[in-house]
Write a structure and sequence with these properties.
Layout: E1 4-5, E2 9-10, E3 22-24, E4 33-35, E5 42-49, E6 53-62, E7 65-77, E8 81-87, H1 103-121, E9 139-144, E10 150-159, E11 162-169, E12 175-180, E13 185-191, H2 196-200, H3 214-217, E14 221-228, E15 239-244, E16 255-256, H4 264-283, E17 294-301, E18 306-309, E19 314-318, H5 328-343, H6 351-373, E20 380-381, E21 398-399, H7 413-431, H8 433-444, H9 453-468, H10 470-482
Parallel strand pairs: 13-16, 15-17, 17-19
Antiparallel strand pairs: 1-8, 2-8, 3-4, 5-6, 6-7, 7-8, 9-10, 10-11, 11-12, 13-14, 18-19, 20-21
Helix pairs in contact: 4-5, 5-6, 6-7, 7-8, 7-10, 8-9, 9-10
Length: 486
């Protein structure tokens, strides 16, 4: 609609004197003008530092009022390259910013909209939706830009859904928009972490057709479900359980405790383990590696298979054999595909790129298991899921320590992926978990959709050199040479 990214431009001045030389449609809708380090009508609200640069975030304003969702961001790398994300809206210069509607009336209209929405999603046996409340001063004047520019009251309300923001036209009193904006409600759940074979160190466990078992009950772990949106469903900042066999898990108190025979148990598994993965990615310093609420369809196919669909950005978990979502390593593997597709749109266009995708997924499952596995069978991927289709112990779908090299390429992405996962696992062993994962994720941003083993390896070596120096780059190079990739 209005959002626009500008081209990257090189600068030679320091941060304090950068001149971007970019044009944009001004907030007042006038002719294009030149943007400088602090364009007019912008308020610096946040400065962030990432691994390779600084990021400046501005709030667009009009006559001193914030413009809803209007932003301007400047990303400056350590070597002086600037990228600008221009998310400003055009606002007519003659827009009147004096309100006809009083804040109390706007608050009443906003709360009525929240009540109506809460009533629509209330449980069937509930006839009264909880009344939302708005604290004094929660109604603030703001501007909506674009073709329907107007002055609004932005009203913040609290209800059983969490925190809502409603925009009320300051001239007519009509509600323009009302939506839930909270994303940090904590809930409670019960999960396997990462799966019962690992947590119980027991290779003899079997599925028994999804029955509850004492041996599996003791493998369940009570956990906090962070970043829920407060809707009473398993939806949050990083996960959206969109479909589920038997219906979606729902609890008004955000308590989701089930035994494994209940299909909703797998929904909790997905929510918890994907949230854990994205929080870890943030801890590493990455804020744009699938930083979204990833859609999942859980237990909705009878096959013993799960997959990521880049066309719909949906991960589907199957329930053949051991329900796939009972094994966190299956969840993490599929989430690995979503991470790479988000970073590199259309990733996996060549055979070797597809193999890299499968290898990364296996590696991601293993590295995510490190904090909770206590070293048990770490290179073994999907220990619990594999009990349904393997007879030898340990039960593994694949491994990240097979010793395969490019001499073993067979032209099948899962098999050839073991070459790549072995290289990544060797990097993990050489650099340690944190450094290795920073290098591996950073290098992914430089992949081509149809990259080769060799090209991706070179990107990884370069990321290691820039982040940690020549010694680290040599260790990464050695890992790829051992697999005959370089």
């Amino acid at each position: 609609m209005r959002k626009r990214r500008t081209a990257v431009v090189a600068v030679t001045a320091g941060l304090a004197t950068i001149s971007l030389g970019l044009s944009f449609t001004s907030a007042a809708g006038a002719a294009p003008e030149v943007a400088v380090a602090n364009p007019g009508g912008l308020k610096l609200i946040k400065t962030k530092t990432s691994l390779l640069g600084k990021h400046y975030w501005y709030q667009q304003t009009f006559k001193g009022l914030p413009v809803i969702d209007g932003y301007y961001a400047k990303h400056v790398t350590k070597d002086g390259v600037v990228e600008v994300a221009d998310g400003r809206d055009a606002v007519p210069a003659n827009l009147d910013v004096s309100a006809k509607v009083q804040p109390a009336a706007a608050t009443q209209s906003a709360n009525a909209a929240v009540i109506a929405r809460a009533a629509r999603i209330a449980a069937p046996n509930k006839t009264i939706a909880p009344v939302p409340t708005a604290t004094q001063g929660a109604a603030k004047l703001a501007v909506v830009g674009g073709p329907n520019a107007r002055l609004v009251w932005a009203v913040t309300s609290h209800s059983s859904e969490g925190v809502s923001r409603s925009l009320v036209d300051a001239d007519t009193g009509s509600v323009v928009e009302s939506k839930v904006i909270s994303d940090n409600v904590d809930g409670r759940g019960s999960v396997f972490d990462p799966n019962p074979v690992v947590s119980q160190k027991n290779e003899k466990l079997t599925d028994m057709n999804d029955k509850n078992q004492d041996a599996l009950f003791v493998a369940q772990k009570n956990v906090v479900l962070r970043n829920l949106d407060g809707s009473g469903f398993l939806n949050g900042s990083y996960v959206n359980i969109k479909e589920g066999n038997g219906g979606l898990a729902q609890n008004k108190n955000n308590t989701f405790v089930y035994q494994r025979a209940n299909n909703k148990f797998e929904q909790v598994m997905v929510y918890y383990h994907v949230n854990q993965a994205q929080e870890y990615i943030h801890q590493l310093g990455f804020t744009e590696a699938n930083n979204e609420s990833q859609d999942f369809s859980v237990d909705t196919i009878r096959d013993d298979n799960s997959f990521y669909d880049p066309e719909t950005d949906m991960i589907t978990m199957g329930d053949g054999g051991v329900d796939d979502a009972e094994d966190a390593e299956v969840i993490w593997h599929e989430y690995g595909h979503a991470i790479q597709d988000d970073i590199v749109p259309g990733f996996g266009e060549s055979l070797q790129a597809g193999s890299i995708g499968e290898g990364f997924g296996d590696y991601w499952a293993v590295t995510m298991s490190v904090p909770v596995s206590k070293g048990f069978n770490l290179p073994c991927v999907m220990d619990w899921d594999a009990t349904s289709y393997t007879s030898t112990e340990p039960h593994c779908l694949r491994r990240t320590d097979t010793g395969k090299t490019t001499d073993d390429i067979v032209g099948e992405v899962h098999d050839d992926g073991e070459i790549w996962s072995n290289a990544l696992w060797d990097i993990h062993q050489a650099l340690g978990r944190t450094k290795a994962n920073k290098v591996i994720l950073e290098s992914t941003f430089f992949y081509d959709p149809d990259t080769s083993f060799a090209a991706a390896a070179q990107d990884t070596v370069q990321a290691a050199r820039l982040l940690y120096g020549k010694a680290a780059a040599q260790q990464v190079t050695d890992a790829f040479k051992a697999r005959k990739i370089l």
